[in-house]
């Protein structure tokens, strides 16, 4: 069985690496991207099953990345950000974000939310076994 793919987009390399380690431990294949413009291109190349997307990115912010992704894909997107203002969350949902998680967050809760979204979208690893 092919591993499910998660695109991790965060300009903080330490956070991206930590997230990737937790996801790989759970059996996911990951790719880390640190720039918004690169993230938009990586979606087509990597074909992720889910995107973990930071809001504050160089090149193109998370909202712009989400807008670009939604032009061609319905891949689930979880927005990760230190900005937890209601207005920011609502804007993300309006653009097509599936979940919004404020930093700092528990890596175990993040993994559980990823699995829940993949289960709801019919892409759960457990369902594919």
Overall spatial form: globular
Radius of gyration: 13 Å
Mean pLDDT: 90
Structural class: alpha/beta
Low-confidence stretches: 125-129
User: What's the total number of strands?
Assistant: 5
- The H/E string reads EHEHEHEHEHH
Count the DSSP helices.
6
Order of strands across the main sheet: 2-1-3-4-5
Helix fraction? 40-55%
Helix and strand arrangement:
Layout: E1 5-9, H1 13-25, E2 29-33, H2 36-46, E3 50-54, H3 62-70, E4 77-81, H4 86-95, E5 99-102, H5 107-120, H6 125-128
Parallel strand pairs: 1-2, 1-3, 3-4, 4-5
Helix pairs in contact: 2-3
Overview of the structural elements:
The protein has helices at 13-25, 36-46, 62-70, 86-95, 107-120, 125-128; strands at residues 5-9, 29-33, 50-54, 77-81, 99-102. With 129 residues, the chain is of the alpha/beta class. Helix 3 links the parallel strand 3 (50-54) and strand 4. Helix 2 runs parallel beside helix 3.
């Amino acid at each position: 069985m092919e591993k499910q793919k998660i695109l991790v987009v965060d300009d903080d390399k330490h956070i991206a690496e930590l997230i990737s380690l937790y996801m790989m431990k759970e059996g996911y294949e990951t790719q880390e991207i640190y720039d918004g413009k690169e993230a938009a291109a990586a979606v087509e190349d990597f074909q992720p099953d889910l995107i973990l997307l930071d809001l504050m990115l160089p090149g193109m912010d998370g909202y712009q990345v989400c807008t670009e992704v939604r032009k061609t894909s319905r891949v689930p997107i979880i927005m990760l950000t230190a900005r937890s203002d209601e207005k920011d969350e609502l804007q993300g949902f309006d653009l097509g974000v599936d979940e919004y998680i404020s930093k700092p967050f528990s890596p175990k809760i993040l993994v559980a939310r990823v699995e829940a979204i993949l289960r709801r979208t019919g892409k759960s690893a457990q369902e594919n076994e």
